[in-house]
Design brief:
The chain has 13 helices and eight strands. With 308 residues, it is of the alpha/beta class. Strands 1, 2, 3, 4, 5, 6, 7 and 8 form an eight-stranded mixed beta sheet that branches.
């Protein structure tokens, strides 16, 4: 009589893109750790690749948050173009001088976009990635990890399971126009969010039986003024991305959605509140998360709580 081979069901975490809104992922990870929700694999897109890579490589949520706080206080960040541009997007009432400065900055960036592949210096963004991630191969992470990027030449989604962690995450975070694409073999790689904003399908393909998805992209703004050709083009892109994201999220077992509002992806002024938003969203989703876990996990968690 043949014996049936029992297969342990895997829980995967799909971390979506969204620039600084990705700091919300830290809060989600904090709650999952506190609740003992074991994660068997992580897949990240863009900001989700950065935070997911740091966590998968062995850093705790607290350590990642401390690193962010330290980076934002560092001379390296203070002298970077990242800070200068990010400040222009702060969501606050601006006086006449600040409005004039933002106007000039936006016009300079617009002109630069016609002559250079990006508005951010490559070194500034590369140093940020190196600050958070160890110089290891993606295969050497503590938790199995995958990164999603997009090949601008073929238009295909590329899912990495091997290769240098820093370079692959840099490619996944390369927001079109803001950060120059990354050459990798025959590929010209850019933001994974172009083809997969929240990498639910990639998590399934990597072997996850249960997928917990974290969406940190901002909602479509119904009060948006659409007056110029640029406004129309940007709005069309937002609608396309939203529709593609919703389609992929439908395949997740649980979708965790931190309330990030319409925060711009380069507004670094709300780190703490973003982490808290992630914690709050994860706690609100705990019943769904627990119900989605494989039966063996639920029994184990229940036994541990009784024995405490």
């Amino acid at each position: 009589m043949m014996k049936m081979k029992w297969k342990r069901k895997k829980v995967g975490l799909a971390l979506g893109g969204g620039g600084v809104r990705g700091f919300s992922h830290i809060g989600v990870l904090k709650v999952l750790e506190e609740e003992g929700v074991g994660i068997d694999l992580i897949v990240g897109t863009s900001a989700g690749a950065l935070i997911g890579g740091a966590y998968a490589s062995g850093q705790s949520p607290r350590e990642i948050q401390d690193k962010i706080d330290a980076y934002l206080q560092s001379s390296e960040f203070d002298d970077s173009r990242i800070k200068a541009i990010g400040l222009s997007f702060l969501q606050e009432e601006k006086n006449l001088l600040k409005k004039a400065q933002q106007y000039v900055m936006n016009r300079l960036l617009f002109v630069q976009a016609f002559f250079k592949p990006s508005i951010l210096p490559f070194h500034d963004f590369q140093s940020l990635i190196h600050y958070f991630l160890p110089d290891i191969d993606i295969q050497d992470t503590r938790i199995p990890f995958r990164v999603v990027a997009t090949d601008l030449i073929t238009g295909n989604k590329v899912v990495f399971s091997e290769g240098p962690l820093r370079k692959i995450v840099l490619a996944s975070c390369s927001v079109p126009g803001a950060v120059a694409p990354v050459r990798y073999g025959d590929w010209l790689l850019a933001d994974g969010g172009i083809t997969s904003l929240v990498p639910v399908n990639a998590a399934r393909e990597a072997g996850a039986d249960v997928v917990l998805a974290v969406e940190v992209d901002r909602d479509l703004d119904a009060a948006l003024n659409i007056e110029t050709a640029k406004d129309v083009v940007l709005r069309a892109g937002e609608i396309t991305a939203s529709a593609l994201g919703a389609s992929e999220l439908a395949a997740a077992d649980v979708v965790i959605g931190p309330r990030v509002g319409n925060l711009h992806w380069m507004d670094f002024n709300r780190t703490t509140s973003l982490v808290e938003a992630g914690e709050e969203a994860a706690r609100e989703s705990l019943d769904k998360i627990r119900a989605s876990l494989p039966l063996s996990r639920r029994i184990t968690r229940f036994a541990r709580r009784i024995l405490k």
